[in-house]
Amino acid sequence: MISKATTVDGFLNTLTDAERAIFTKLRSLLKQAHPKVTESMQYRMPTYLVGDYHLGAFNKQKHYLCLYVNPEAADPYRQELKAAGLDCGKSCIRFTKPEMLPLPLAAKIIKAAGKLAGK
User: Fold this and answer.
1) Which neighbouring-strand residues pair with 65?
2) Which domain CATH number covers 58?
3) Residue 3 resides in a domain
4) Would you call 100 helix, strand, or coil by DSSP?
5) For 3, which DSSP code?
6) Does residue 24 lie within any of the structural domains?
7) Structural domain of residue 84, as residue ranges?
8) Using one digit for the tens of pLDDT, what is the confidence trace for 39-98?
9) What is the pLDDT of residue 16?
10) In what order do the strands lie in the sheet with 38-42?
């Protein structure tokens, strides 16, 4: 989905209730991951930066939902992601239904990304 929203709240308002709920939780995790995180819309998706460091982002695509994180943060969790039945690219975690993403695992990955931002 290519969002025309100019704010994260505007983006969230275009989603179904279930999609909005999972992305609102991810938004909260991303904002808590580092004290200097900034939130913006980049590439038409909610994006979270610490300076120039890309902490994470999320988006709704045509056939899936996606959490984008630094590959270095996600790499230690690849087996857990695979065991959860998630399709992963180098920096993205794809899931077709909001309930498919295990939030405790997403929280660990986002926390790891926040630690990398401090390097």
Assistant:
1) 60, 95
2) 3.90.1150.200
3) no
4) helix
5) -
6) yes
7) 8-117
8) 999 999 999 999 999 999 999 999 999 999 999 999 999 999 999 999 999 999 999 999
9) 94
10) 38-42, 45-50, 53-60, 65-69, 92-95, 87-88
